[in-house]
């Protein structure tokens, strides 16, 4: 049996000798793997346009698919798709408006395009699990009196579709008015 070495006060676990110098592999601090709870950023995505397609014939599924096929054939990506009886709406890049207009006219689909739209992204880790956080943000939006076209949420963000100027004002209001413990 090998002779046991007595541990001394200089014993340091995970210490190894590399080359001619000592290396301590314990590290010097913690690595943060998760963001802190609460709102951690508010961003505005600009350069979008809203498309409103209306008068879609019954059966709705077939007419929606025909509209989406025409949009796909034109090479346009849609975002924030909303379906309603006989209609649908979505966002596109503002630079794709003419291409979309041509594709929808050729397909015989009634539509309206509105430029200068944006999406305000309010980011928070596990936003849907934070009791009352979405309600607090929406309370600020409602209290502002600003018009918002659509609201959506994901596990880590709240999305507000509006015009670009309103989006900037709402983003600033959310940054300024929510309590520090929520924003940081």
Helix share, percent: 25-40%
How would you sum up the major sheet?
Answer: 6 strands, antiparallel
> Radius of gyration from the CA trace?
27 Å
Distance between the termini: 58 Å
Instruction: Give start-end ranges of low-pLDDT stretches.
Output: none
Average predicted confidence as pLDDT: 84
Strand proportion, as a percent range, falls in: 25-35%
Number of helices: 5
- What order do the SSEs take from the amino end to the carboxyl end, as H and E? EEEHEEHEHEEHH
Shape: elongated
How would you summarize what this structure contains?
By secondary structure, this protein is α+β, with helices and mostly antiparallel strands. The chain has helices spanning 60-73, 97-106, 133-144, 164-177, 180-183; strands at residues 15-18, 21-24, 39-54, 79-84, 87-93, 110-124, 150-154, 157-163. The strands form two sheets. The protein has a six-stranded antiparallel beta sheet.
List the helices and strands and how they pair.
Elements (H helix, E strand, L loop, with lengths): L14 E4 L2 E4 L14 E16 L5 H14 L5 E6 L2 E7 L3 H10 L3 E15 L8 H12 L5 E5 L2 E7 H14 L2 H4 L1
Antiparallel strand pairs: 1-2, 3-5, 3-6, 4-5, 6-8, 7-8
Helix pairs in contact: 3-4
Describe the structure.
With 184 residues, this protein is α+β, with helices and mostly antiparallel strands. The protein contains 5 helices and 8 strands. It has helices at residues 60-73, 97-106, 133-144, 164-177, 180-183; strands at residues 15-18, 21-24, 39-54, 79-84, 87-93, 110-124, 150-154, 157-163. Strands 4-5-3-6-8-7 form a 6-stranded antiparallel beta sheet. Helix 3 packs across helix 4 (164-177). It is elongated. The mean pLDDT is 84.
